[in-house]
Specification:
By secondary structure, this protein is α+β, with helices and mostly antiparallel strands. 45% of the residues lie in helices and 14% in strands. The chain has 3 domains: 338 residues, Beta Barrel (Thrombin, subunit H); 61 residues, no CATH class; 269 residues, no CATH class. Strands 2, 3, 4, 5, 6, 7, 8, 9, 10, 11 and 12 form an 11-stranded antiparallel sheet that branches. GO terms for molecular function: dipeptidyl-peptidase activity; serine-type aminopeptidase activity.
């Protein structure tokens, strides 16, 4: 899955660098996560050559309805698209997983059985879920950087930049008024600044989801793999007040009428067809240095994988033993396993593609360029040495940071104790207790005491063992205030006496609130000590080195931009992903994953049946699904050969956060939705691999087959807009784009 990606980087030799990616041609590699406001001047001719029929104004406009108005940031971690005039949203099943699990119970298990609302009244409101529409973006680099000079210290520069951002944000807030959220973000390692204006909707309701056996078919086994047969989709709806404005949940709210929604094509795809993805990629680091790559391979990735492996194995024992615990921890397990597997693949990819050596070659080229000019030496001579010094100084701290974030902070009672004490510190007592009564319901609904107790014991043992002999050993033991040989007795006592160990004891505490009892609670004490260790020992050890790395990166990126054409590069090259809307375009393509191996660009219903295994929960087919497949009850969703296409792949450049993004053809019609990357290119967020990197998408025809033919949710089909050719019953696609608004 692509959800919540954490780190990434870039290569230069066989993989085209971001600085060279602007040299677009018919033969060019389809690398790049492009900001929509630069599409006209940067990419449009190449996009037309590959099959785009829209104008730049039809993709991004601030005056007229455009494609951007049908794309939303979903929950701050995924992407979704509006597919009807009634605010119907389509995103991935794994993006909606938390929401689906949250409204599921053992008696009404929508995660296992699926759910389809037959009317608006049956749609489930999802507490805490929101979507953001992008209204406008723009460049404020001059305003933000205008008061800075090359002679300033990093501290002076940061102060001036902060003041300028505050002033720019104030001006934008006054311009747009109430009801809009303004964000100003740095790009190109703080060498450019762009603003983004959003409209946020908070009343989001679950409309439909297939059973987990469809939405997660293949489970962890198939995660990040191709060929794929996963129906990774779910459906929600945006509600607004009667005037179409954002509003908190209320029964009188109405389905939102969007400025634009995506029409659907049932014509399918063929090899080399144009395909573009619009969405919110979360994080890449393609300007990363060789020192960062080395730390990822040798320190960060293996430590991260090791700690998550411990967590997954501990949870799995209890999930396999109890259906209730399986449901409680299903979403947590899936999210944790996602990046456990991702970082295993990333490390393999970085080594296989020799990314470290390629980065070192880039840096040697850069230093040759710097040393050829006295003026350049003054500006950039220390860039790489600052980066190297920073990484060398923080190696042990990086491990300790992970022992905290992926180890000790994974203990659920400890983390919830932090949330509870923080609420009581920030709010007045009455307000905090009311808030905690609500948050407690959500926490304990998906909490199992024995499961968390076992994890606490294994994590304390793990962290102590790994820190033994390091400079952090004494501080860690001091923080938990117990002898290392007595962890079992310590954990037994902690869970036997803490107010956080059960919902009943927590509610009893809230009903008889006693601040002294809270402060004396053993879980609160453990939380305080562990957090104190992190804040007083680990984080300070990261701060100085991180500051050096940041300043070195700023100079290195600025110098590389200058080396490749000057600071006009901010309008020529794509910046790293940072969860702002991007467009990536390319083609439907097959690939050769290895010697004597070939993968077609699509999968069919045959593969679902071939993978079926009634003994493996990841490959189970429910009777209604198997019946439809065996009888080939595909209706209008079959291809020209009578087969049902399930998934297809493109060479679109995507990353975490793109989950749920629409895959759109040259006419602006929806043909699928992105949900994964392929195993052979797991290093892609660091080094784009043109021959191997593929975006895995569920075919929109498979989505509609499940909704229509398998589960009979005709009400959903009837509110969609279809391209004229091969359209089932429903609203026909009359015009390419809507009128002005």
């Amino acid at each position: 899955m692509l959800k919540r990606l954490l780190v990434a980087f870039l290569a230069i030799t066989t993989s085209m660098s971001a600085f060279a990616a602007s040299s677009k041609s018919a033969e060019a590699i389809d690398e790049g996560m492009w900001l929509l406001m630069f599409i006209d001047r940067l990419n449009y001719d190449d996009m037309k050559d590959k099959g785009l029929k829209l104008t730049p104004e039809e993709i991004y406009s601030v005056n007229n309805a455009s494609l951007k108005d049908a794309i939303v940031s979903f929950g701050g971690f995924c992407t979704a698209e509006v597919i009807s005039s009634k605010g119907l949203l389509l995103t991935n099943h794994h993006c909606g997983y938390d929401a689906i699990q949250g409204v599921s119970t053992v008696e009404n298990d929508y995660l296992t059985n699926g759910f389809w609302a037959k009317s608006h009244d049956e749609e489930f409101p999802i507490e805490g879920l929101h979507v953001n529409f992008l209204v406008e973006m723009g460049d404020v680099s001059e305003q933000v950087l205008g008061a800075t000079t090359d002679e300033m210290s990093p501290e002076e520069r940061a102060e001036k930049v902060g003041e300028a951002i505050a002033a720019a944000k104030k001006g934008l807030t006054e311009k747009f008024g109430e009801g809009y959220e303004i964000s100003i973000k740095p790009f190109f390692d703080n060498n450019a600044y762009y603003y983004f204006v959003y409209q946020k909707f908070n009343d989001i309701r679950l409309v439909g989801t297939p059973p987990e056996s469809i939405g997660k078919y293949g489970g962890d086994t198939d995660n990040w793999m191709w060929p794929r047969h996963t129906g990774d989709f779910s459906m929600f709806r945006i509600y607004s007040d009667k005037d179409g404005k954002p509003a908190q949940f209320a029964k009188e709210n109405v389905p939102y009428q969007p400025k634009h929604h995506l029409p659907i094509s049932l014509n399918g795809v063929k090899k080399n067809d144009y395909a573009m993805v619009l969405g919110y990629p979360g994080s890449t680091d393609r300007y990363l240095s060789s020192f960062g790559v080395a730390q990822g391979i040798e320190v960060f990735n293996p430590t991260f994988v090791d700690l998550r492996d411990v967590r997954l194995k501990s949870w799995k024992r209890f999930m396999d033993a109890d259906p209730k615990v399986r449901l409680q921890y299903a979403s947590k397990y899936a999210s944790t396993a996602n990046y456990w597997k991702y970082f295993i693949g990333q490390t393999k990819g970085l080594k296989r593609l020799n990314v470290l050596e390629k980065k070192q070659a880039e840096e040697a080229e850069f230093m040759n360029w710097v040393n050829a000019s006295e003026d350049r030496k003054k500006l950039y001579a220390n860039a790489l040495s600052l980066i190297e010094e920073g990484y060398n100084a923080q190696e042990e701290a990086v491990k300790a940071n992970l022992y905290f974030s992926q180890g000790l902070w994974a203990i659920e009672t400890v983390k919830f104790a932090y949330q509870a004490t923080a609420a009581l510190e920030k709010m007045d007592e009455k307000e905090a207790i009311a808030s905690l009564e609500e948050s407690g319901k959500g926490f304990y609904k998906d909490f199992d005491k024995e499961n968390d107790k076992a994890l606490a014991l294994v994590m304390l043992n793990k962290v102590y063992k790994d820190l033994k002999g390091s400079k952090y050993e004494a501080q860690f033991l001091s923080s938990i205030k117990t002898d290392s040989t007595d962890f079992p007795a310590y954990i037994d006592s902690l869970y036997a006496t803490s107010i956080f160990s059960s919902e009943a004891s927590f509610n009893n505490f809230l009903a008889n609130y006693d601040k002294e009892a809270l402060n004396a609670d053993p879980v609160v004490e453990l939380k305080n000590n562990v957090l104190g260790w992190y804040l007083s020992v680990v984080r300070p050890a990261m701060a100085g080195p991180n500051a050096k790395i940041a300043e070195g990166n700023r100079l290195y990126t600025k110098g590389r931009l200058e080396m490749n054409g000057g600071m006009s590069g901010q309008n020529t090259y794509y910046p790293n992903a940072n969860f702002t809307m991007r467009l990536t375009y390319g083609q439907v393509l097959d690939y050769f994953p290895g010697d004597a191996m070939f993968y077609s660009y699509y999968t069919t219903d045959k593969g679902i049946l071939q993978k079926e295994d009634p003994t493996n929960p990841e490959f189970i087919l429910r009777p209604e699904m198997k019946k439809a497949l065996v009888e080939k009850n595909f209706g209008k969703y079959a291809d020209q050969n009578g087969d049902l296409r399930v998934c297809f792949i493109t060479n679109n450049d995507i990353t975490g956060g793109n989950s749920g993004s629409p895959v759109i053809n040259g006419n602006g019609e929806l043909i699928g939705l992105a949900f994964d990357g392929n195993w052979e290119a797991m290093s892609g967020d660091i080094a784009f691999e043109p021959e191997l990197q593929r975006c895995i998408n569920v075919d929109i025809r498979y989505v509609l087959f499940i909704i229509d033919q398998v589960y009979g949710a005709k009400n959903i089909i009837e509110e969609l807009t279809f391209a004229k050719e091969k359209a089932p019953k429903g609203k026909p696609f009359e015009a390419l784009m809507p009128t002005k608004y």
